[in-house]
Amino acid sequence: MLKVSMMIRLMLLIMMEGALMKAVMGEVYTVGDSNGWSTLVNSSYYTWTSGKKFRVGDTLLFHYRPTNHNVVQVNKENFKSCNITAPLKTYETGNDSFTIRGTGHYFFTCSFPGHCDAGQKIDIRVLKTYSQTTNPHTNVNSSTTPAAHVAPNTTARAPRSVATTTGSNCLLMIIVVVSIIWVAMWDA
Question: pLDDT: is 115 or 168 the higher one?
Answer without folding.
Answer: 115
